[in-house]
Structure formats: C-alpha cells, structure tokens
Design goal:
Layout (H helix, E strand, L loop, with lengths): L7 E5 L2 E5 L5 H7 L23 E4 L2 E4 L10 E3 L3 H15 L17 H8 L23 E3 L9 H9 L5 E3 L8 E3 L15 H5 L5 E3 L14 H18 L1 H15 L4 E6 L8 E7 L2 E6 L12 H5 L14 E4 L2 E4 L2 H19 L4 E4 L6 H15 L4 E2 L7 H10 L9 H6 L2 E5 L3 H4 L1 H13 L3 E5 L5 H5 L2 E3 L6 H14 L5 H7 E2 L1 H7 L5 H8 L3 H13 L3 E5 L1 H4 L4 H14 L9 E4 L6 H6 L6 E2 L3 E2 L3 H11 L11 H9 L5 E5 L3 H4 L3 H10 L2 E6 L11 E4 L8 E4 L4 E5 L12 H11 L9 H11 L16 E3 L24 E2 L18 E6 L15 H6 L5 E3 L1 H7 L6 E5 L4 E8 L7 E5 L30 E8 L24 H5 L11 E3 L5 E3 L10
Parallel strand pairs: 1-5, 15-16, 15-25, 17-18, 17-21, 18-19, 20-31, 21-22, 25-26, 26-27, 32-36, 33-35
Antiparallel strand pairs: 1-2, 3-4, 3-5, 6-9, 7-8, 10-11, 11-12, 13-14, 13-27, 23-24, 28-29, 29-30, 32-37, 34-35, 34-37, 38-39
Helix pairs in contact: 6-7, 9-28, 10-28, 10-29, 11-22, 16-19, 16-20, 16-22, 25-27
Length: 1003
C-alpha cells in the first residue's frame, strides 16, 4: 500500500519519474504510460504473481513489477532483451492454457486481457500448443459458467473470492497434474458455498468465467449451434500456423468494433441496498447482457448476487405499463389523461371538503433524490400539507435521532473506507454480510488481512458473528444497557479521551450522572452478557486505533431505538472516536436511497437538508423560490397516518414506490386502514399488494429507465443514467409527479432531472454545490457539499454542527421491550433481511436464478427447540402473535438459539408477510415500529415436508479459506521455473542462452 510522504524519483528506461513510497512498481509504470503486459495483476486485487508477464529489469536483475516495491533511485529497464524474452516465455505458457478463438467469443468486447496482451506483445505464433484439460464445463450455477479449457490459471478469481469478497470458496489445486479452479475443494458450483456475488466473473481476464446472460448474445457469430461453433473455432486454429495471430486478431477487432453499434454501456447505481454500488449495465436493446463494475467509488469491482444478477424484474411481463382505475371489485386500463383527471378531481374535492391535512403523501426510498424532492414539493407547495414521509420511518429514523442529539448530523461519520481503516469495528444488530454485502466485504478483508478486530452483538450467529473476535448475544432489546455499562466502565477507569472531551464535548456531568445505575452487575443481569465480556468490549473500545460502530434494524426497530442509537454515539464520544479517519458512527441505511429520501425533505417536520418546517426563515426561503406559502405545523408521519385513517381524519393518500401494506408493522391493521381511504393513488413498477387497495394505479419506471441521483449510506451522491426507454406506457416518477402537480395548477416546467437538482441545491445547504456536471460519470460527492463543489468525506473535521461546534453527551433512558415472551406467547420472534432477496421481494422474486436459490420464506428454529417440539426442516407450523398469524415451513439451524425464532421478511405471498405478526407499538420518539419486539406461539401443522432451502443454497456449502491464491505452491511445482532463468545477463543487457533450460509450468 502507498504511504503518505514525499514522492521519490525512479528511472524508467532512462527517464526520471515520480513514484509514491510503498507502491508497487507496476502502478508507477502504468501511471508513466509504459505499455507493460500484466495479465494477472489487477489494481484492486494487488500482486498475484501467477502470470509472470510483467517481468522487468530492476538494478540489473529480473523481477515481477507487480510485486516489487519502488525505492528511491531505482533503475528500471523494460525494453531490454532479457525482460522481453522472459515476458514472451511467460505469456506463451498462458496461451497453452487457453484456446484462442476471439472472433467467435462472447468476451470479444475490447476488454479481454488475454486478447489485448496477445496484440500488445505482437504474438505471431504459440510455441506451446494448447492442451485441453480433462474437465467439463461447469454450468450448474444459474448466473455464470466456468470453462476449464479457457482458464489460464491466473488466480484473479481466487484472489477476489478469498481476499476481496472474502467468501473463501475458490482455490486452485496447484499440486494436481492438471490444475483448475475449485469450488469448495472440488464441488459443482451450485453445490458449493458460492454466494453468486460475481466477483470472480468480473475480474476474469478472459472468457473462462462468463455471465450466462452474455452467452450467444454479445457478438455477430456467438449464437451458433455447438457443432457450427466448434467448426468455426477449428477454422481459426487451422489458419493460425500459416498466417499468425496478427491478421486473426485484426478480424476479431473488426467484429468487436461492430458490436459497439448495438451494445450500449450505461453507468448506473444499484437499486437495492444502501451501499450504493455503481457500475455499467451492458444492454442489447432491452436485453441486459451483464453488469460490469470496475471503479465504483463505493464498491470498486464488487457486487452482490442482487446487484450483479438481480435485474430480471426490469423486463418482467408483470410490469405495469398503463394506468389502472378501480371499477367495482377490479381494475380496468385507462389512459393517462383519464387517470390524471380523476386524481386531480378527487384531490381537489377532498381538500375543499376537509382541508389539505385530510391528504397524505409517502415518497419512496427506492426512487431518485429528484423524485423524492418533487413528491414533498407536491404535498407542501401544491396541496398544502406537511403530511409527508418515507420508509426511513420503518428503519433509520431512530439512528438519525440519536446522532442529531449528540453530533448534529444524521449520517455516517465517514465513508466505507473508514470502516476498512478502523482498528476495531463493532456491529450491533446488523446482519451486514447479508444486508450490506459489499460493505461487509471491506470489513471482512480488513479483519482477515490487516488484523482488524471485530466485535458483534446480535441475537443470531450470522456470518459476521462467526467471523468475530468476540460475539455476544444479548437478551432481546437490551443493547442500550451494555452500551451504557461500557461507557461507565470507560469513565470509571479513566480510559476516556480527556483532551478530546474537554475541547469538543459538552454535557459530561449530566451524562455521568445518568450512568449511575449501569454497573457491570446490572448489565449482566439485564442483558445476559457476562461482566468479563462487557469489560473486554470497554477496554477494546478505549484502546483501539479507531473504533467504528455499525448498527441497523436490530437496534432501530425496538421500543428504545432512538435511545440505543444515542447510547452508541455517547460511547463513541467518550472514547474520542469522532473527528478522525477510521472512527465514528455508521448507521447502515437499508435501501438504495433511504438517505436521499430524507435528505430531500420527504419527512413531516423537515424540508430538504433537515431544515425545520416551523422555522420562518426556512419557509420564507422556500416561498421565494416556489412562489407559494408552506404549511407551518409538523405533519403526520407514516405510522401516524394509519391511525389517522382509522380515526377518520385522513381521507386520501398518494403513495409512491412503497409496499406499505406488508412492510408497515401490524399489517392486518394497515390493510384495514387502506380499505377505509376515500381515495388512494399508488405509483409503482408492479401491481403490488398495496396497489390492490388503490383507486388509481400509475405505472412507474425503474432506475434503468431514467436519469437521476441516489445518495448512499455514506452520504455519497451519485448519478444514474437512462439505459433504456420506459416499458410500454410507464413513465419516470418525476414525470408522473409533474403531470399530477400540473393538473392541480402548479405550472411546473422541468424537462430533465438536472433542473430539479439545481433547485435542490439552491434551497439546501447540505447540497449547495451539487450539480450534474460535478457528478458526471463515476464522479461522486459526499454531503455537505459546499457551493464551490468541495465535499466532506469525513464529517466533523472542524467541529460539530452546533453553535459552539461542540458535540453533546445526551442522557438517554432505557426503554424495555413491551412484548417479552409469556406463558401463552412463549417464543421471541425476530425478523429481517437475507442475502438473496431484497425486502419483501417484489423485485428479486422476478429473477428465476434467485428464486431457485431461495423459493420462499420460512422460520428459523434452533436445534434445541426443534428437538423439544419434534420439528425438522420442512415441518409446517403456524405462528400466532397478539396481532395475527402466518403459516410457513421450518428451517432448523444453529444460527438461532433457544426459544428465539427468525423469519426473513421476503415472501411471494402477502398472507405470509412478517408483519402479519408484528404490532403497532413503536419507538417513543420517532414512531419507528418495534418490529423486533414481538412474541409468538407455535402450532405444529405437519412434521414432514420439503425443506424450504434447496441443497443448492450456499448455506449448505463448505468454504475453503486460505491466504489468497497461494502462488508459492505453484512455484514449488517441479515443472515451474522463473521465466528468464534460462538466460544469463551480460553487460549492456545482451543475452547468453543456457543449455540447461527447464520448461515452464504448462509445457
């Protein structure tokens, strides 16, 4: 890794060049634009050292440039004959492993490393003929296939799996006479621990690993039947000895250039979780060929199964393509004009009869910033109500509240890079590897390779818990208690950061007093965590070189979610873990734009940038630009809206892109409310369960069919570009909202989302310097963004956003669960996300490959509870709470313990939704439902049944962890010699051939 410090000077082929201390020579050569082969090297993977094609002469000896650190005065020569011959020898070994048929190859798209290296080196002929491997293609995975005959054994895929994704599935059996890439030591891919993240496919330098969506689709000649294809390959190989590779490659490059006419590559941002992965989507008309990440600011080359392969929903035949109007007990298709006319008439009537506060609006955490902004503008400026919210109320509002109280900004303290830099990462109530998989890879990588400490507090033993140095399982809803005990221990033992507290923090006396009862003894009694472990956590926090705390719904979806979030921030303040890289608070945002939806003012008490609606100066600023007065009083949040409908106070609702009826808590109560609405508009990509209650359903477009921006969990604002036209009569949400507003007399004239962002920037200090030019391509900005475009990757560098620039220790209070298990309801019901599906599954259940991995929902039961009640995987049970009941199959797993249950929130059947069981009780400050505070009883309906997870699910695999490719094992093979070792260097770089030459690994 490069280190901070003054640049050094090195000599490259006689010229002087600057280099960065600690960097590898290959990076300096690439920056100097020296054309050097480097087949196995990848800047995001680091030195792999399997291909030997980057050999250069340094200070008179031959070395691999990828693994050689630069040093002051280093003398580098790339063009000497010894280095050139070594590189040629190395690449010839590679070609012996690879059947070169570029013209008819699906990967002939200008980015094939093997093809490009063949051209770069001017290879005319192979000295070592291609040797087929005695293995069949593995096509068992639904998303990609592995062809051993095309595999050059570079190890990029192994390095990516072992040390970047850190799923640790792939290895190479170097000791075998015919090495190949192995999944779980030799299992078929679909019987292994592979999570289908796509890292291996992305970094493969040739066509050995290919997306199935590319096969037969990418090129002019790639869709041929197998016998014809084999004949075409044979023709290419037969002419090579006489004409050489140069004319063959020229033909293939003409074919590749032709593909540019019909393959579009469009930058977009993932539409799933809050990590904010960005990549190019390759399309051929509406066919999605593949997702290609390479340099996303949040993800680099990383993806998860959903971001890489979960895009089938875009072309689903279930898409809404025309407006629908309720007629009797069903719906009929309508024109846009008819639907808009009905909406305008009914909104006008209800507002006239009952006032603007009889209407409510809910924005989406999945649509763009610009669309969230227009939704709240419609509510406030056109209709005249602050009854406006978004789904952050269901998950993230308590985290925001805890941070507002203490440090002033409700967002991540830094970026994902800071989680990598931290000496200690603590995860509380976050199943990070499944909910935020790409972010989790950065923590797993730092933990594995850099010795970062990891502490996890959770009810379930998920992947991050298994990897942790310390895993604790507190009693449900008691994290607040052990966190306060940690803060007290730090203060009682003088471990706090005294200088930091004195300069930057207020409220110590009141806070210390609030900790009086939180002794180690009390914490052990309430949480079930031993005093020794609480003491260990406190000492780790106090002594670590930077502590980051990640938390999510296991904290926020409790009765005391705001209090626990406050306690987390208090602990970080006491230990001095703000205002520095590799430290701070990280409330992981669940949806792709849940941060942005709140930033845009889709909240009842705030306009954009968390400016209060009851602030006269804020309202005056908006009135001056909008030309309308803003309503003064805080509106209803989405939790309050449901109660208001039942009370007859709320008559109409306009909901955009949310599955409210099954993701809000106490779903039966919510369904009953939606049935009572006088008028209900739902705007969505699919006819959701919520849409079944609507009077008008409007067909919206997903992210690939529009322009806009998303803001991820690290406050990073990124552009997405339209990759294809809207399907049928669907429209982007911003266009629909403008049509509705103008039917109500607004007179809006936006023609592109960039204009909306300009308006946002003019009204919002946090976004003041944001515009589309500054976000072009893969550029991004992390708010606050100053008017000159300077952004803020690390918050609080110059103090905290309070008048005195000091943070505030906030004396929070413990709020105990209200639904602990009882004699009647004797089981604790936990719920949340899983890797393969997203949220309720409206998008991911449209992907057949994902459905094959996880066909439906289930309930996890511990082995001990299963034994007590005679259950096994596949048993059918009925769970009954105080609020409802569901029927579903059992999965017996040691991820849960005792009488705790866990149910994924995804389902294709609304009757099985998690929230048929949860109640209406909520965090007392933010009204975020206490989804995790539910007790149930279990009724056994049948014992024998089909297990809910197929054996092809990765959870049944057996990873094979190792330290990357382990190239040293290749070097120990008896048939391997370092290229060029058969030559001795003569003065001036001339060569002398040795008679004792030993061939390469693949002779």
């Amino acid at each position: 890794m490069p280190v901070a410090g003054p640049e050094i000077q090195i000599s490259i082929d006689g010229g002087s060049y600057a280099a960065r201390p600690g960097e590898h020579l290959v990076d300096a050569l690439n920056r100097a634009r020296v054309e050097l082969p480097q087949v196995c090297y990848h800047p995001q993977l680091g030195p792999i050292q399997t291909c030997d094609t980057c050999i250069v002469e340094v200070n008179g000896g031959l070395v691999r440039a990828c693994a050689t650190p630069v040093s002051e005065g280093m003398q580098v020569r790339t063009a000497v004959q010894a280095a050139q011959t070594a590189r040629e020898e190395a690449f010839d070994r590679i070609l012996a492993n690879h059947l070169l048929y570029c013209t008819v190859c699906d990967n002939n798209n200008g980015n094939c490393t093997v093809h490009n290296t063949t051209k770069l080196m001017g290879v005319q002929h192979q000295n070592r003929p291609f040797q087929p491997k005695p293995y069949a293609k593995d096509e068992t995975n639904p998303f990609y296939r592995y062809d051993p005959d095309q595999c050059i054994l570079c190890g990029r895929c192994v390095e990516a799996c072992q040390n970047l994704q850190v799923n640790e599935t792939l290895t190479i059996n170097w000791e075998d006479p015919n090495p190949r890439v192995l999944w779980d030591g030799g299992k078929p891919i679909d019987e292994s621990s592979c999570v289908s993240c796509g890292h291996c496919v992305t970094v493969c330098p040739c066509n050995a690993l290919m997306e199935k969506s590319m096969l037969g689709e990418a090129g002019y000649f790639t869709g041929m039947e197998l016998p014809v294809f084999n004949s075409a390959v044979a023709i290419v190989k037969n002419v090579e000895p006489s004409v050489g590779y140069v004319p063959i490659l020229n033909v293939s490059e003409i074919e590749a250039a032709g593909r540019e006419g019909y393959i579009e590559r469009t930058k977009t941002v993932c539409t799933y979780c809050g990590v904010g992965c960005s990549f190019e989507v390759w399309t051929k008309d509406r066919h999605i060929l593949k997702i290609e990440p390479f340099d996303g600011p949040a993800n680099g080359v990383s993806t998860c199964i959903k971001g890489k392969f979960g895009w089938d929903y875009v072309n689903s035949t279930e898409r809404l393509t025309t407006p629908l109007i309720r007629e009797g007990n069903g719906f009929r298709e309508a024109t846009w004009d008819e639907a808009l006319g009905l909406i305008a008439r009914r909104i006008t009537e209800i507002r006239r009869e009952s006032g603007p506060d009889a209407l409510a609006f809910i924005a989406s955490s999945k649509t763009t910033n610009e669309e969230g902004f227009l939704m709240q503008k419609l509510a406030r400026s056109v209709v005249g109500t602050n009854n406006m919210d978004n789904c952050s109320r269901y998950c993230q509002s308590p985290a925001t509240m805890g941070l507002w109280r203490t440090v002033g900004y409700g967002g991540d303290s830094g970026g994902i890079i800071d989680l990598e830099k931290a000496g200690l990462v603590i995860g509380i109530g976050t199943n990070t590897a499944e909910s935020h998989p790409v972010l989790a890879t950065r923590v797993k990588r730092a933990h594995k390779l850099r010795g970062q400490k990891l502490i996890v507090a959770d009810l379930r033993e998920h992947e991050m818990a298994r990897r942790a140095d310390l895993f604790v399982q507190p009693n449900p809803g008691t994290d607040f208690v052990w966190l306060n005990a940690v803060s007290r221990y730090i203060l009682d033992h003088g471990l706090e950061k005294k200088d930091f507290l004195a300069q930057w923090v207020n409220g110590m006396e009141e806070f210390r007093a609030s900790l009086e009862g939180y002794t180690l003894e009390y914490a052990e009694q309430v949480t079930g965590i031993s005093q020794d472990k609480i003491r260990q956590i406190a000492e780790e926090v106090a002594t670590a070189d930077g502590t980051c705390v990640m938390w999510a719904m296991g904290v926020t979806q409790q009765m005391g979610g705001s209090e626990t979030s406050t306690a987390i921030s208090n602990m970080l303040l006491v230990s001095g873990n703000y205002m520095r890289p590799g430290a701070g608070s990280y409330p992981l945002r669940g949806h792709n734009n849940v941060q942005g939806a709140s930033d845009m003012g889709a909240m009842p008490g705030f306009v954009t940038g968390y400016q209060r609606v009851d602030d006269p100066a804020v309202r005056a600023k908006y009135a001056a630009i909008w030309g309308t007065e803003l309503p003064v009083n805080k509106g209803l949040d989405n939790h309050e809206m449901v109660h208001a409908i039942h009370e007859g106070k709320l008559r109409a609702m306009y909901l955009k892109g949310e599955e409210m009826s099954i993701v809000d808590s106490n779903a039966n109560y919510v369904d009953a409310a939606l049935e009572k609405l006088d008028f209900f508009v739902v705007q969505d990509v699919f006819f959701s369960h919520t849409a079944s209650f609507a009077d008008v359903v409007l067909p919206a477009s997903p992210s690939l069919e529009k322009d806009g921006t998303f803001t991820n969990t690290e406050r990073r604002i990124q552009r997405l570009y339209k990759a294809m036209e809207p399907m049928g009569g669907s429209k982007p949400d911003w266009e629909i909202i403008q049509l509705v507003a103008n039917r109500l007399g607004a007179g809006w004239t936006y023609t592109h989302p960039s204009q909306i962002m300009d308006e946002i920037a003019s009204l919002t200090p946090l976004y003041a310097g944001v515009n589309y030019a500054r976000l072009e391509g893969f550029k991004s900005l992390q708010w606050p963004v100053h008017p000159d475009g300077t952004d803020t990757p690390l918050l609080f560098v110059d103090g905290f956003p309070f008048p005195d620039k000091k943070a505030r220790l906030y004396p929070a209070e413990f709020v105990a669960p209200v639904e602990p298990p009882t004699e009647e309801y004797d089981l604790h019901f936990n719920n949340g996300r899983m890797l393969e599906h997203f949220h309720e599954g409206n998008m991911t259940f449209k992907a057949p490959g994902i459905v094959a991995k996880v066909p439906g929902t289930f309930v996890e039961v511990s082995p001990e509870l299963a034994q007590q009640r005679g259950l096994k995987s596949g048993s059918l049970v009925r769970l009954v709470s105080r609020h409802g009941a569901v029927r579903l199959p059992v999965l017996v797993t040691n991820r849960v313990i005792g009488k705790q249950l866990y149910m994924p929130m995804n389902t294709q059947d609304a009757a099985q939704a998690v929230n048929r069981l949860t109640g209406s009780h909520a965090d007392h400050v933010t009204h975020t439902p206490a989804y995790k505070d539910t007790a149930v009883r279990m009724e056994i309906l049948s014992v024998d049944g089909t297990p809910p997870l197929p054996r092809t699910n990765h959870r049944f695999g057996h990873p094979t962890p190792q330290r990357g490719v382990e190239v040293e094992r290749k070097w120990r093979r008896p048939d391997y010699v370092f290229p060029g070792s058969s030559l001795t260097m003569m003065e001036g770089g001339s060569l002398n051939a040795r008679s004792d030459y030993v061939g390469g690994a693949d002779d």
